[in-house]
Specification:
The chain has one domain: Arc Repressor Mutant, subunit A. 38% of the residues lie in helices and 7% in strands. A two-stranded parallel sheet has the order 1-2. A two-stranded antiparallel ribbon has the order 3-4. α2 crosses α3. It is globular and about 35 Å long. The model has no long low-confidence stretch (mean pLDDT 91). The chain binds a DNA duplex (13 and 13 nucleotides) through α1, α2, α3 and β2.
Length: 111
DNA sequence: GGAGTGACGCGGC
DNA sequence: AGCCGCGCCACTC
């Protein structure tokens, strides 16, 4: 069945890695993409370990409200925001402007 | 091995 | 339309 928790993390990284430049995604969208719509919370948890991965743009992942909820976990408080702005995404008060316009929904990952 | 926690989401009030 | 509370899943103590 290959339903090991390790695979879950791997899937999360795969999806996040597919986020194109200048785009952002949500935990819920990623969770759904990997077939675990109810595990949005766990997706965020996986992002913690994503720090040991360099191909995982965790800064492009925000909550469904378009708020940089995970910015506190970055080495700098404004690092996440700066990275998004560098990609052409406007961020105001830890929230992405025109979030829907920058929102990118990943395709469902199937085994 | 039970209980708590967390980078979330949604329904109810 | 904003605030509160519950659910869900993986992980740690």
């Amino acid at each position: 069945m290959a339903k090991n928790n390790t695979d879950f993390f791997q899937k999360v990284y795969e999806v996040v890695r597919q986020i194109p430049y200048g785009k952002v995604s949500t935990y819920g969208a990623i969770a759904k993409a990997i077939g675990a719509a109810k595990s949005a919370r766990t997706v965020g948890y996986a992002m913690n370990a994503s720090h040991q991965h360099e191909d995982v743009p965790a800064h492009r992942v925000v909550n469904r409200n378009g708020v940089l909820t995970g910015k506190h976990h970055f080495p700098g408080t404004l690092v996440m925001q700066q990275m998004l702005e560098a990609e052409g995404i406007e961020v105001k008060n830890d929230q992405i402007i025109n979030f829907e316009k920058h929102l990118w929904i990943p395709e469902v990952q199937r085994d």
